[in-house]
Automatic annotation (TrEMBL):
Protein name, entry field: Adenosine nucleotide hydrolase NudE
PANTHER family in UniProt: NUDIX HYDROLASE DOMAIN-CONTAINING PROTEIN (PTHR11839:SF18), UDP/ADP-SUGAR PYROPHOSPHATASE (PTHR11839)
Record carries keyword Hydrolase: yes
Keyword terms of this UniProt record: Hydrolase
Nudix hydrolase domain segment(s): 50-187
Gene Ontology terms: biological process: nucleoside phosphate metabolic process; ribose phosphate metabolic process
GO molecular function terms noted in the UniProt entry: hydrolase activity
Organism: Blautia wexlerae
Essential cofactor(s): Mg(2+)
Length: 204
């Protein structure tokens, strides 16, 4: 196992920071590594805490009387200079339970009312997003959305279009558009499964 010798915080931003690690690999090779993190201090890094608490939530939600549409957002992302399809998502606020965060984020991004499902913890525990560059982890919350789409609660810094996609539209999106990988894998199951949430009824 590699050994981390010291950590330096390089930025002091509100939502994301960059840290530099000096380390030695298992092969005794010096390593200079950079980690982006939601942590506001070195002591809050998962390297230090050893805990995998969710930084954010990803919301996989079905909509409509037949629950045959999936709630997506088409969002402008500066990292790619263009639009990408994602599930509604956002950061968990301090002392906020992540299911509550999912309800809040769904309303803020889409105007919809979200009702989370109770599922086996293995399906919704925090999983790491892009661990080669960040210690960020997100919990996935599953459920049903209802109501009318509204942009009233969106932040001025966001550019979000809400999409209620049926299976034909999902096929087009996967074929033609930029899609976040966490969303894409679930959409592939959405296309094939009569009940997209059937797997959540399993006990692990």
């Amino acid at each position: 196992m590699g050994q981390i010798h010291n950590i330096e915080k390089l930025t002091d931003c509100k939502f994301l920071n960059l840290y530099h690690l000096n380390a030695t690999s298992v092969h005794n090779t010096p390593v200079s590594y950079f980690v982006a993190s939601r942590a506001k201090s070195i002591n809050e890094l998962k390297i230090k805490t050893g805990k995998n608490t969710p930084d954010g939530v990803i919301i996989y939600s079905l909509h409509g009387e037949k629950r045959d549409r999936v709630v997506l957002v088409r969002q402008y992302r500066y990292a790619i200079g263009g639009y990408i399809y994602e599930f509604p998502a956002g950061l968990v606020e301090p002392n906020e339970e992540f299911h509550e965060g999912a309800v809040r984020e769904m309303y803020e991004e889409t105007g919809l009312k979200f009702t989370p499902l109770k599922v086996d913890p293995a399906f919704e525990k925090p999983y790491f997003t892009t661990v080669g560059m960040t210690d960020e982890s997100c919990a996935t919350v599953y459920g049903y959305a209802e109501g009318e789409i509204s942009k009233d609660a969106q932040e001025d810094t966001e550019e979000i279009e809400v999409v209620l996609a049926d299976r034909e539209e999902v096929k087009r999106i996967l074929r033609e558009e930029n899609v976040a990988i966490m969303c894409a894998y679930q959409l592939m199951h959405f296309l094939q499964d009569e009940d997209p949430f059937a797997f959540l009824k399993e006990e692990l």
